[in-house]
Amino acid sequence: MNTGFDVERIRKDFPVLSRELPGGRPLVYLDSGNSAQKPTQVIDVMREHLAMHYSNVGRAMHALGAESTEAYENARDKVAAFIGAPSRDEVVFTKNASEALNLVAYGFGNPTNDDPRFRLGPGDEIVISEMEHHSNIVPWQLLAQRTGATLKWFSVTDEGRLDLSNLEELVTERTKIVSIVHQSNVLGTVNPVAEVLARVRQVGALMMLDASQSVPHQQVDVAALGVDFLAFTGHKVVGPSGIGVLWGRGELLEAMPPFMGGGEMIEAVWMDHSTYAPAPHKFEAGTPPIVEAIGLGAAVDYLSAIGMDAIVQHERELTGYALGALGEVPGLRVIGPESLDRRGGTVSFTLEGIHPHDVGQILDDNFGVAVRVGHHCARPLHLRFGIPATTRASFYLYNTPAEIDALVRGLHHVQKVFA
Amino acid sequence: MNTGFDVERIRKDFPVLSRELPGGRPLVYLDSGNSAQKPTQVIDVMREHLAMHYSNVGRAMHALGAESTEAYENARDKVAAFIGAPSRDEVVFTKNASEALNLVAYGFGNPTNDDPRFRLGPGDEIVISEMEHHSNIVPWQLLAQRTGATLKWFSVTDEGRLDLSNLEELVTERTKIVSIVHQSNVLGTVNPVAEVLARVRQVGALMMLDASQSVPHQQVDVAALGVDFLAFTGHKVVGPSGIGVLWGRGELLEAMPPFMGGGEMIEAVWMDHSTYAPAPHKFEAGTPPIVEAIGLGAAVDYLSAIGMDAIVQHERELTGYALGALGEVPGLRVIGPESLDRRGGTVSFTLEGIHPHDVGQILDDNFGVAVRVGHHCARPLHLRFGIPATTRASFYLYNTPAEIDALVRGLHHVQKVFA
Amino acid sequence: MIAESMYQELILEHYKHPQGRGLRDPYDAEVHHVNPTCGDEITLRVKLGDGGKVEDVSYDGQGCSISQAAASVLHELTAGSTVDETLAVVEEFTRLMQSRGQVEADEDVLGDAVAFAGVAKFPARVKCALLAWMAYKDAVVRSST
Amino acid sequence: MIAESMYQELILEHYKHPQGRGLRDPYDAEVHHVNPTCGDEITLRVKLGDGGKVEDVSYDGQGCSISQAAASVLHELTAGSTVDETLAVVEEFTRLMQSRGQVEADEDVLGDAVAFAGVAKFPARVKCALLAWMAYKDAVVRSST
Ligand SMILES: Cc1ncc(COP(=O)(O)O)c(C=O)c1O
Ligand SMILES: Cc1ncc(COP(=O)(O)O)c(C=O)c1O
């Protein structure tokens, strides 16, 4: 690789990558699509904060409270800058991407809110797609069930692309919200946001993007994208667990009813009613994931210092290499785009006659190769392809071609075991 | 203090307690009711997990996935044991106590659920109290507004006790749920759960306890308490931010609709409907706060090793000492019980003629004494006492009588500044 | 001895050469169980005989090697045993599987099924191992009533 | 110079001896502002004169020393200035308060109000410091229309 990007130096930032697994196996971590590993830069910031600066935020006025609040709110600034948010107040910290998606879903069809954009009932429609993660399916199913609205979805082509051939029938005047994934966590496909958005604007609906798999792997700019809401999750951007982000247009966040009630999301409380703080605090009920937000701030600093462009380039080379090498394994079928065109570094596949659970387990047991097997929280997509499960290798900034070689060697061994 | 309990040794476990604040002030942390400090034992477990064992849980089948899943689920075992839960499956990890309270509130009045216990509409009643934290007020207000149910509340006596004189009028056949605080975060009052519960059972309603301030400070046993739901929050039990707990009776968790939808809370997903995993996973949508749960497990281990009885005894001595010493400050009025009877180590007060914000700031600026000032997320309780705010000192296992002396010295100085 | 790896020779043997596979007549009860999270399925029939004996356990299904091998091992263990004996094994097997690797397997009770001990550490695979066994338990209940 | 502590002598001086406190006639506009999170309140009147001059700012209220002193300092700063001049100060003061301590205070513009620089580090107190100033801005708008 020749990108001014030093993967060996980067690997040293991630302590676990030099770990030996039980039995002396080295770790070959190809499961970053599931969750990314953490660099020392993130771990240390969290440890230091927990040990020396921790206290509750917002409500505490003493020295530690000021330090914690400043660190927490600085993290919001960092995240806002990282995703190009026009205002820091549009960045809501949640516990993960799932909460961000549910938060928006619960914003619709609430009888106490009469903003027409968020009214939802029988006759109104919600549009998602067949390639969604369960976290961008179930919240909308629950919403449809609660309100009587109709759930519709884009289908997926054999090549693993969003099928937009019926865009106009699918997204209509009845549509209130379209929520689709930016980059598929199974196929690797990067979806054509602008094309869908143009139709969404035509019919006056809102659009949400599940960017859980794009924010870690490309420079995402919410202003340039032009959507209304965007969700992602901290643990996939080398940040900690327990933190996610909802970005939403300020005026929409203002128009939405609160989701959860509690400390910090209020302006004033009486026994019989309350008024609410402006966004983002309106949506951050209770003590937030303080140290986790701070860790996320350190994570986006880390990625920015390396440069998202360099990361994109590195992953592109890895993905090209992987598609080539996997293509030579007999009986291996890639589910998703087979070229580098509009796709990220996530490669899912089946091995003829061998169940993915067995593939994954042997890769792990014998070679320390960590991949994900199953339906990757995208069961409908697997049903679409008529398969119960796939094996998925997903790459990140710290992966190397040698690790892809280890995967391929492992697959050959799997085939030998089950021959 | 003579309890076989070595507070100086304990203080060494908490790195921040030996920190110097800017200007060379020592830290006197009397704000544990807001959030507790963290011992090395918790910080190290989290750091070690993040650095060497981290991966996503449940869904990952490789070695790291198994380690993370085991550590995460072990934390559930620890928490279950800590609160005497009859089954580990009754312990749901949330992001904080507020989410736990909202989760239960959203369980009511959901049109997709027809369990009569969770049906809620006009004519049905919810009962809370005037001494609740906003996190146990606003979720129920929002629920009442969404469903048309009526919100009622216990009042508070001049001594800061729950006024049970109208228990029978308040809790009636129309009541679906009573949710009150176990120990007040302002008054320190410990509420008579059994008395309220007897009436709740008589009318066939459900009962929830906000145990955010009791679980850190006494041995809480959900089976012995006999309530239906209980919430608490990790950061107040020397655990990390970003993690909370809902305990609920198994059969009720089973009867409730899911709250948030997403990965891990499902059994199977089709585009048009889904089936759900059994509790606790049904209520843990998306990647949970993994490292935070593990940190919470380490926190309850830490507290158990010291012994909750010893902690109770220590706090009792501190509280007695504090009530005595504060009683001698001229113009100081304690809001809440003035004796040690049925109260914990939280002492809120007003200083005549001086605004609590000024009290808190000077205590901090000049003496490094960290107290909380304001309404402590219990504005209705302050309205009840006709005061905009109080100053609150709250104690924990690591506090000493010398720190209370520092507080009192500080208060004398505050009075001098504003004389 | 607890297995280091999940893929004991014995499991692979059973997977490649499943014992008693195929649905047979006659039977007292037939059940169909699915593991929705991974899509593994099994159809299983039980024929009980006199004196509480298990006469035949026949099955068909699809899924990973663990779920398929578990069915094969089950078939072998039940052959010629009484219902009570087999239910004791099912119980011990279930206990082992749900132990998350914290419990020593009792080889005296489990016989060949001890080879699955390594599975217990992988919550996601536990259901695969248990699929046939739970189906069997279910089928026995239905046969006797 | 940015204050180390929030309680500058000047703030305490203003708190103990508030300048221009009390509501006076005549006035062009009266506003009542409340900080709901801490309960601080202020009633403030503005009387404008010829040539865009501020003739009088009178006020009454209750709350912490910061909010009360801020009203007193505001009174002093506005006396004899033009509306435009005072609004420039209000703007700089607001910028300083919302900087979370990241911005250097411009003493030339702020005068005595620079004493509040230390408040900017305490988000919860920023609203106290701003209460009177926001009320003033509001009142000026109402006076001129
Ligand atoms: C009594 C009480 N209930 C609920 C809460 C809310 O806890 P959290 O902010 O962690 O959700 C708190 C603390 O803030 C509390 O003291
Ligand atoms: C595309 C996509 N959406 C949503 C999620 C959910 O993220 P989380 O589990 O952190 O809520 C994930 C990852 O799990 C994902 O890959």
UniProtKB/TrEMBL annotation, chains A, B:
Q: Which CDD domains match?
A: SufS_like
Q: Which family does it belong to?
A: Belongs to the class-V pyridoxal-phosphate-dependent aminotransferase family. Csd subfamily.
Q: Which InterPro entries match?
A: Aminotrans_V_dom, Aminotrans_V_PyrdxlP_BS, Cys_dSase_SufS, PyrdxlP-dep_Trfase, PyrdxlP-dep_Trfase_major, PyrdxlP-dep_Trfase_small
Cofactor annotation? pyridoxal 5'-phosphate
Reactions listed under catalytic activity: (sulfur carrier)-H + L-cysteine = (sulfur carrier)-SH + L-alanine
Q: Which GO terms describe its biological process?
A: cysteine metabolic process
UniProt-recorded Gene Ontology molecular function terms:
cysteine desulfurase activity; pyridoxal phosphate binding
The organism sits in which domain of life? Bacteria
Q: What class of enzyme is it?
A: transferase
What name does the UniProt record give this protein? Cysteine desulfurase
Q: Which SUPFAM superfamilies match?
A: PLP-dependent transferases (SSF53383)
Ranges for domain Aminotransferase class V: 28-407
The task this protein performs is described as:
Catalyzes the removal of elemental sulfur and selenium atoms from L-cysteine, L-cystine, L-selenocysteine, and L-selenocystine to produce L-alanine.
Question: Which source organism does the UniProt entry give?
Answer: Streptosporangium minutum
Automatic annotation (TrEMBL), chains C, D:
Pfam families, sorted:
NifU_N (PF01592)
A single GO BP:
iron-sulfur cluster assembly
InterPro entries linked: NIF_FeS_clus_asmbl_NifU_N (IPR002871)
Which ranges carry the NIF system FeS cluster assembly NifU N-terminal domain? Answer: 6-128
Which is an annotated GO molecular function term of this record? iron ion binding
Question: Known NCBIfam families for this protein?
Answer: SUF_scaf_2 (TIGR01994)
This one is known as: SUF system NifU family Fe-S cluster assembly protein
Identify the species of origin: Streptosporangium minutum
Taxonomy, top ranks, is:
Bacteria, Bacillati, Actinomycetota, Actinomycetes, Streptosporangiales
